[in-house]
Amino acid sequence: MAAWCHSRPRTTGSATAVGLLLFAQAVPPLAAPFAGVIADRVQPGRLLSVGWLAQAVLAGLLTLLLPPLGVLLALVFMLALVDTPLAAAVGRCIPVVVADDDLVAANALRSGVRELGTVLGPPLAGLLFAVWGARLVLGLDALTFIAVAPLALRLPALARDTSGRPRTSFARDARDGLAFIWRAPSALAVALGFWVVVLFSAPDDLALPFVATLTFRAGPVAVGVLLAAASAGLLAGLLLVHPVGRRLGITGHIVAGFAVMATGNLLTAAAPWLAAAFAAQVLRGLAIPVADSHVSTHLQRATPPHLLGRALANVYGGVGVAAAVGYLAGGPLVDATSPRTAFVIIGCGGLAGTAVTAALLRHERVSASH
Description:
globular
């Protein structure tokens, strides 16, 4: 869609329009507390199939109308809003369809496939856009939603809540989901640390092009190589998830993943050559599936089933908000300092988030032992 905006005349093709498009996609995570309630109240198979069909309709409208900027922003916002409860629904049903010992591997596979889509999808869409235009790309997008919708109907139904609790209001359920994160020490430890780490690490992709062009005086190819480094490391890191997890445990793996991500950014700041910066970003990428898959697994094991959709939606909705704030702050940070200084701040902030998680988890263990 960004490429389509660039190709449109005047206001639709401006940088402001592209920024508004990205902003429209970033706002829906603010509705995560309510999205989590939907994920907990509706069977995952039904929610996913209806949600994907709704996204197919919205993508189809984009295909048919190729609308002006105002309508485009509204449709993109609706696409992202519909998607908000779906991720929580997927996370909610994973513990039902795989054995507990396979949770980490299943969560890692899910995040890896998602990342593979973000790595391969944009260049493929850009190639199709350049050859056949926006309508074909958007039409294919709509067809993918239609193709996967029937698969969701094959998911097993989750057990109903038989505890005898009375059905509360939608708003009360949303408050209960937020209260669980606040009152469950391990969930709060993981959530706060994750949010801080993402807040500081989100701007690294904004700063990397300036590391290539200003720090190392390299060209566009170097920019592309540096931007691809973390994704390459992430895909390779999927192979490390299970063996490393057996050694460190779930929470140890989360803390280690956060620490390595931050260290990769600090090493980028200190890199004397472009190749060293590439290696540092690969290291950062290796840790992303390690941390992400174990955060999901920890929440799936530590959360009561009737609250799991809300827990996942709130934690990952907070991640989305933290990333949006990080993007907004990243540009001014690079402009006000330098690429190397920005990466020092990014890395130190990530280590601060790691320290928050480690300290809160240790406090929980000490409190539980007394």
